[in-house]
Design goal:
Blueprint (H helix, E strand, L loop, with lengths): L1 H9 L1 H17 L7 H24 L5 H12 L6 H15 L5 H27 L1 H9 L4 H25 L8 H8 L4 H28 L13
Length: 229
């Protein structure tokens, strides 16, 4: 814990300067919608990161740190759709990466949860928007799987699109947060690039494992309208 406080105290001037610039920017942008909700969100995020840092500082040296992190991250996102599927889908990848560094747990599990949740939300939206088309297919004798499946595939493609677009131009638009974080933490450029590559592949693999489980807990609706879907 002493090292934790030393880091925060050592960066207090830098943090204060950045916070001052943020306040100035919010003041300037007030009339364009940068209101009190932005300030509340930033303060909430700062407190969450602070306590998360304290948690990691205590947990990191423990041999079972990765296991506890998987449980903590899953519990923190338990209200998000597909969280359980994302956690189980990430396990094969995390069994390889987490023993090397527990930080992989938050990176892989968080990204996988986001992709699964986005897929399910997009799927619901498409089903509602294409209500008439689905109803017509069912009336013509299609099974629920035949009627709904095309929109499930579209949902997967749309959820993956931002991730794949970012991956497609990796290295052409400068440093990502991933690379920059590793370099700021003292890592070498080679390690930063390798870790980003490993992370991208791991996220795609975890997403692929998580999808069947997420869809198994979310069968095609037998009737319209969709209710709680």
């Amino acid at each position: 814990m002493d090292n934790f406080w030393q880091v925060w105290q050592g960066q207090s001037l830098t943090t204060g300067a950045i916070a001052g610039l943020a306040v100035l920017a919010l003041t300037i942008g007030w009339r364009w919608g940068l209101g009190i909700d932005v300030v509340v969100t930033v303060l909430k995020g700062t407190l969450q990161l602070f306590f998360w840092g304290v948690f990691l500082e205590i947990l990191w040296p423990w041999p079972w740190a990765a296991t506890l992190l998987i449980g903590a991250v899953t519990l923190a996102g338990s209200r998000r759709p597909g969280t359980l599927a994302a956690g189980l889908g990430s396990l094969p990848v995390l069994l390889i990466l987490a023993p090397q560094n527990p930080a992989w747990v938050g990176l892989i599990l968080g990204a996988t949860q986001g992709l699964v949740a986005q897929t399910l939300a997009t799927e619901t939206r498409l089903w509602q928007e294409r209500y008439g088309e689905i109803e017509t297919r069912l009336a013509l004798g299609a099974t629920p799987a035949q009627a709904y499946a095309p929109y499930r595939r579209q949902a997967i493609a749309q959820a993956l699109q931002p991730f794949l677009q970012t991956l497609a131009i990796a290295g052409l638009t400068g440093l990502s947060e991933w690379d920059g974080g590793l370099l700021l933490g003292g890592g070498t450029p080679a390690l930063a690039v390798l870790s980003r590559t490993q992370g991208a592949i791991a996220i795609l693999a975890s997403f692929g494992f998580a999808l069947p489980m997420a869809f198994a807990r979310r069968p095609y609706p037998q009737n319209l309208p969709f209710g709680n879907y």
